[in-house]
Structure formats: structure tokens, C-alpha cells
Design a protein that fits this description.
The protein has 489 residues and is mainly α. It has a domain of 334 residues. The protein is built from 24 helices and four strands. The strands form two sheets. It has a two-stranded antiparallel sheet with strand order 1-2. It has a two-stranded antiparallel ribbon with strand order 3-4. The longest helix has 36 residues. It is globular and about 70 Å long. The protein starts with 14 loop residues before the first strand and ends with a helix. The N terminus and C terminus are likely disordered. Keywords: Membrane, Transmembrane, Transmembrane helix.
């Protein structure tokens, strides 16, 4: 099959494959070596998912490693099929997924529950990709419920991490050192303002989770909380144990989940999609900003295509290697990093999809290299705890932003507690019931003459503009005053 000529000016050629645009690395786009190198380094962070499989599904380490290799391989579908992003997990839902799985006995019963949830998530993604109803579905969910879902995450995470035997309790210094450093690099104004001044800050921030993991490892090993890393140099490449996967963890081994498991997973599957939907909005924004910076390449981001690819990944994983973090459409931090370098011009990066795809191809190579995996093994458990604790912070932050009115805040707080302690089904029931009872739905607000969600968004936008204006004025005054003092002196 020959490469298809681009339909639009400056669009990369591709082979049409239904709704997908199939591009072959090295033929339709070049490998970007900077992103490829970053992928080799940062790919090791994907290994932090192994404890979710060993601790929560009861898989042996070697089998869990094989499952993660398959999961990471699925990342490459996005670049190959025309989605110009760096995909990741649906990380905000991870605390809820783990809490849901704890309701089932570890072993085949729990694996079946995971399969049921991931099949439903796959169905929702694919359904939304085909029907293009995602906007209507998510916009129909009140902000108080979105906020409640996200605010429940830190409650659920801290419940687990403060219990006996957790990583936070067994390796407190390593876990906190990594979590606090990651939060500092991601959200500290000091870090943001001084990245250009201090090169080390810029490098650490650019590589996302890597340096927090390494600092956690150093602290943990030094204090005896973690075992020393061992570099295995015998076998270089790990080939997944497909036979063991098929006969132990696949749907063909544990059996198709009963209807009761699908019914119990429906509320959580819907929550997963509500949280994942924000990634599609973010992806579109990031791609549009990259497109505006350059006219030499047309970039085609299609949210329906991204939905379908994410659904396909979840479907394949559900059948062969169920994966608790679930397959999500976006890794925000790395997508931003690649997009920023793309904006530097054609010499820096020829095509955006080439940069995104190169990173994920290298990630796959990283997780099959035995020396890298063996070296990172001591930090995997703490790495998974760092991911959960950091995500708890992020979810709390975003959840608060969703709550625009006092009514939103009260409903979100109650719903978060119900979700953390009673599960997703009860939480959605309580959330919608309170919104209806307190006249907090948009159709009720319009009748009562109360500000709707859209109008509150406009108020927030004006407030943000005013805050930015004051900040700009403050920085300008700060620069001006010393000059004035010198003249006066």
C-alpha cells in the first residue's frame, strides 16, 4: 500500500484507514531524536504501574512486567493512527478504581471485576467517538458533581496511604521527598519564575516524574527504607510472557465477567469518562496553540479519533492484560514539553506527530530493557505512591476550581465523602439528588433567574483577567521602583 498524498497543504501524508490516519515512522515522519532520548529516560516511570498489578490484582512481578510492556506498546497506536499527543493513563480515577477493586477477593474474582470496568470504559470511549456526543454528555453533568468526584480522590488516597503497610508508612521519607519535589516542580511559583535563571530547575521540571523518583530512591536507600538498586547485565531485552498472560490474567483464563460485575462498574465507568473528557479539551487546546505558532505544517487533531484510539487501547487491555490505571488519551506534562519544542521551529522539530510518536516509541524500548527495569525496581512501589499522592493534590486543586458557588461547594463536599466511603453508585445518586433538590441544575437556575454555569464561567474569566492585570502591574512597579530610588539618590 503506497503512502497517500496529504489532503491539505503542508499536512503529513498518511494511509487512510477508516477514521484513522495510518503513518509509518521513518516513512511518513522522521524520528525526533531529542524526544526519543527523553522517552528512553522517562519510560522508566511507566514501571511504577507494576505495583498496581502485583498488589491489587495479585499478579507475580514477572507477569505484571509483561502486562505493562503490552500496555506501553498500546501508547504507540496514537502516533501511528493520527492522534498528535503523548497518551497516558486516566490517573485521576486510579484511587477510585483501586477502592472499587478492594471490594472483590484478590485473584480471578478481582481480575474479572477489572475486566468488566475496563470493557465498559472502552465501550464509552468508542460510543462517544462514533456518535460525537461527548460534549453533550459531559456538559450535562453539573460542576458540583465534577468537583465532588475530584475532591473525593485525596480522601481515598490518604485513607490507603495512612493505613498500616502502605508505602507512606513503610518508606515515609522517600515517599514524601518524591511527592513534595514533584509538587514543587509542577506548581511552585518560585520554580516557574526561576527556571530560566537556574538551569537545574529547568532540567528537573522538563523531565517530569524522573527526578522526584530518583531523589526518592536516593533518600530511601540512604535511610534503609529501600533496597539498593541492582543493574542486571545478562539478558538485555525482556520478551513478554504471552503464554502466561493468556492462561493467567486474560479474559480467556478467568472467564467473561458476570452481568452483576458490569452493573456494579457502570457508575465508575461513567465517572472515568467524565474525568478523561478534560484531556480531550486540553489536547485540542495544546494542538491549536502549536498550530498557531507555525504555518509550515497542518496538524489534524480529531477528538472522535482520539476517543476511538483510547477505546481500542482499553478494549485490547481488558481482553488480554487488564490495567487498573486504565488507558487515557493524554499525558499533559509530556505533551506540553513536546509542543513547546515544536514551537521553536522546523529545525527543532519537523512535525508534531513525529515528536509525540518518537517519545512513546522510546518509552516502549525503555520498559523492555532489563538493565533499566532492574535498576528502577526498588523505587516502583514508592513511585506508585508518589503518583497517587501527587494526583490527590491535583484532583483537590481542580475539584475546588469546579465549585463556583456556595451550593456547588456544599454538594461537592458531601458527594466526595459519599464517593470515598460508599462508592461511585451512591455518590452519583446523592450528587444528582442534591442538585435537583437545591435547584442547582442549569435548567432550574434559568427559571429562577440565578446565574447559570456559563454565566459563572464568564464571571470567573473576568476575575482571572483582572488578577492577571494586577500581577502584570505589580511586576512592572517592582522593576520601576529601584530605578526611581537610584535617580533620587
Amino acid at each position: 500500500m503506497s503512502p497517500k498524498k496529504a489532503k491539505r497543504a503542508n499536512e503529513l501524508p498518511y494511509i487512510p484507514l477508516g477514521p484513522f490516519q495510518w503513518r509509518i515512522p521513518g516513512i511518513h515522519y522522521r524520528v525526533e531524536y531529542v524526544e526519543f532520548f527523553q522517552g528512553l529516560i522517562l519510560g522508566a516511570t511507566a514501571l511504577s504501574s507494576i505495583p498496581y498489578l502485583t498488589d491489587n490484582l495479585g499478579l507475580p512481578y514477572e507477569l505484571a512486567w509483561s502486562c505493562v510492556i503490552i500496555e506501553v506498546f498500546m501508547y504507540m497506536l496514537h502516533g501511528w493512527l493520527g492522534d498528535p499527543v503523548v497518551p497516558g493513563w486516566i490517573t485521576p480515577t486510579l484511587p477510585f478504581t483501586l477502592a472499587y477493586l478492594n471490594g472483590f477477593e484478590k485473584g480471578p474474582d478481582r481480575i474479572q471485576a477489572m475486566i468488566a470496568l475496563q470493557l465498559l470504559v472502552a465501550f464509552v470511549f468508542i460510543f462517544m467517538g462514533i456518535t460525537k456526543l461527548a460534549d453533550k454528555f459531559v456538559n450535562g453533568v453539573p460542576n458540583s458533581i465534577k468537583g465532588g468526584i475530584l475532591i473525593a480522590a485525596p480522601i481515598t488516597v490518604l485513607q490507603g496511604q495512612l493505613s498500616d503497610g502502605s508505602q507512606l508508612m513503610t518508606a515515609p521519607v522517600a515517599t514524601l521527598a518524591g511527592t513534595l519535589l514533584l509538587a514543587f516542580l509542577s506548581f511552585s511559583p518560585f520554580c516557574e519564575k526561576n527556571r530560566s535563571k537556574y538551569k537545574i530547575l529547568d532540567i528537573m521540571a522538563k523531565y517530569g516524574n524522573l527526578f522526584p523518583y530518583l531523589i526518592a530512591m536516593v533518600a530511601g536507600v540512604a535511610l534503609g527504607e529501600l533496597s539498593k538498586p541492582v543493574l542486571e547485565l545478562g539478558t538485555v531485552i525482556r520478551i513478554p510472557d504471552f503464554s502466561n498472560i493468556f492462561h493467567t490474567v486474560s479474559i480467556f483464563a478467568v472467564g467473561f465477567p458476570p452481568l452483576s460485575k458490569f452493573i456494579s462498574a457502570i457508575p465508575l465507568a461513567l465517572i472515568c469518562y467524565v474525568l478523561a473528557f478534560g484531556d480531550f479539551v486540553t489536547s485540542k487546546t495544546l494542538v491549536e496553540e502549536a498550530q498557531e505558532s507555525r504555518s509550515d505544517e497542518y496538524i489534524d487533531f480529531n477528538s472522535s479519533r482520539s476517543n476511538l484510539i483510547s477505546g481500542l487501547r482499553n478494549l485490547i487491555l481488558a481482553i488480554f492484560a487488564p490495567f487498573p490505571p486504565l488507558a487515557g488519551p493524554l499525558w499533559v506534562g509530556m505533551t506540553v514539553s513536546v509542543a513547546m519544542r515544536y514551537k521553536e521551529g522546523k529545525k527543532a522539530m519537523k512535525s508534531l506527530i513525529g515528536g509525540m510518536s518518537s517519545f512513546r516509541m522510546a518509552t516502549f524500548i525503555s520498559v523492555i530493557l532489563v538493565p533499566i527495569v532492574s535498576f528502577m525496581k526498588p523505587i516502583m512501589g514508592v513511585g506508585s505512591a508518589i503518583t497517587l499522592l501527587f494526583q490527590a493534590y491535583v484532583c483537590a486543586r481542580i475539584g475546588m476550581e469546579y465549585c463556583q458557588s456556595n451550593t456547588d461547594k456544599s454538594i461537592a463536599g458531601v458527594m466526595a465523602a459519599v464517593l470515598a466511603f460508599k462508592g461511585s453508585g451512591w455518590a452519583l445518586l446523592v450528587g444528582f439528588a442534591m442538585n435537583l433538590l437545591l435547584s442547582n441544575m442549569d435548567f432550574q437556575k434559568k427559571k429562577l433567574g440565578v446565574l447559570t454555569t456559563e454565566e459563572l464561567d464568564q464571571v470567573d474569566a473576568k476575575r482571572d483577567e483582572e488578577a492577571q492585570r494586577l500581577l502584570t502591574q505589580k511586576n512592572r512597579d517592582k522593576k520601576y521602583v529601584p530605578v526611581l530610588c537610584c535617580v533620587a539618590g
